[in-house]
Structure formats: structure tokens, C-alpha cells
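User: Before I run my own analysis I want an independent prediction to cross-check against. Here's the chain; please return only the C-alpha cells and, at the end, one sentence I can use as a sanity check.
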Amino acid sequence: MARRRTRIRHDPIVPLFAERLRELRRSRGLTQAQLARAAHITETYVSKLETAQIAPGVDLVARLSRALTCSVSDLLPSALPELNDLREQARRRFEEVLRTRDRETIQLLLLFFARLTPLP
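Assistant: C-alpha cells:
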């Protein structure tokens, strides 16, 4: 009989690390494939790191920092984000969705906003 996988609940720092990793990679103009090659991991692994599906070990954080030419501390968020930081992050993502005209995401957002609006 196959054992069921237990879903791991990561600490809140994991999605913050994921966001920071993605920001640094993009700011250096690297694709996930290029970062993967430089850090000696697979592109799929980079994707999972950037979507907070997995948490990296300390040795991998060091390899990623070398691949991104930054310090290890640059990859680690110093604290949980403040409300204003979260608002700014949401604003940037919303603007990106509008700029790219991502129809699927826009439709999901419309459904979400419709549920927030109280009915008369």
C-alpha cells in the first residue's frame, strides 16, 4: 500500500524568500534556466523555489547567492513585510496583470472583487 505524502507547512519566511529570489533573478536579467545552470540545479527546482513549493537548504542559498552575485543576506528577508509593503507589492502585481493583459487572471480578479462587494 502506497503511503500518502504529508504536505509540509513552511514557515512564513519561505514565500518571502521565494519573492526575493524571483526579484533578484529578474533584476539581473536571468531566466530560470540560466539561474539553474549557474547554481547547479534544475529549472524545475528554481520554479519550485520561486513559488514557495519547497524551502532551500543553507548550502543551496549560498550557491544561489553566488549565481546571483549577491550576499546570502540579500536573499533572506529581514522581517515580515509591513502592511504598506504588501499593498505596494499587490499594486505592482496588479499593474503587471493589466499591462500583460492576462485575461485569465483578470477574470479571476473580477470574480474575487465581485464577492467582496456586498449585495444590496
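Sanity check: The first helix runs from residue 13 to 27.
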